[in-house]
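Bug: token stream looks shifted between consecutive jobs. Job 1:
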Amino acid sequence: MEIIVTLLVGALAGWLGSVIYKGSGLGIIGNIVIGLLGSMVGYWLLGGLGIHLGTGWIGVILTGAIGAILILFILNLLFPRRK
């Protein structure tokens, strides 16, 4: 059951990060991966700065979304889209 919750939180965080960053859609698998990686980056970054967004699901999703935005920003720097 925990793995399902983790995947759902990762998907929500990745989706929220991609909506806020205005990136291209990565699909459900891409959102889950970006959300899970974003959660790790978000906790590392915000924890290092002493910032806590609260407890519960909202704090977890927002922390993951902040990390996902950072990852999407770096990916767009490394691989710019051609128009």
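Job 2, same session, no restart:
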Amino acid sequence: MSTKGKHRRPRTRRFTRSIAVAGTGGAALALPLLGAAAAHAATAQPGTAAAVLPVKTVQSAAAVQRDAGARTYTVRPGDCLARIADEQRVSGGWQRLYADNRQAVGEDPALIHPGLKLSLGKKAAAPATQASTAARTAEAVPAAAPATAYTLPVAVPIVGTGYHVAGSMWSSGYHTGIDFVVPTGTSLKAVGAGTVVSAGWGGAYGNQVVVRLNDGHYAQYAHLSQLSVSAGQTVTAGQQVGLSGATGNVTGPHLHFEIRTTPDYGSDVDPVAYLRSHGVAL
């Protein structure tokens, strides 16, 4: 039969289509991707999509922070550098963690105190200079004060347990220092100019600070609620080294104060006699 006079249905040009899914904060959008012929057409056909939306990958805020290395960790009671490095997955282990935070930790990596902030993954910024630290100290000694001056460790010296009081509660069989009865938060002062050799957790002593005085003796402050200095820092007589508290093995808030011939336990001397020999009445 002849095909003349018959209406032929026009052949429609086929487009290849595929579906892409773009992340939009948890929702998914199905976007048509036109085939090569349509994608390169100079003019979009009426009723068809005019553009192809790009697919984006949104990086989480946590990932951005990790990539930038801008992480910090606040030391908690019982922490050590090895445990922190392991839990926080610090590349290079505790040695890298210590190297990045050496100025904050001090010379002894085993002495870190609760509340200390550590940088993870990048070197910590240099701490404030000694001059600025002294300027912020409420009870800093005026610049004109003589370097040989000595003072009491607390403003109101009420002595509780005295030096060499015998008792089974002490491992040496006697009290190795003197206790000043003060409430938590009392400002504690360097009795003389010197250098901080340790500032951190001291076991039964709780938070402690040990200062090597310029005459070669060592002053120990124990059971502190807060530390105001760090190892390696120089201090002047009367400068705040911390705040009193009840950390460690105690029955109540007070300052345990010792004078030693070395920084170690067992080298104690009479702190009252020492202070009096330097003109401090007690």
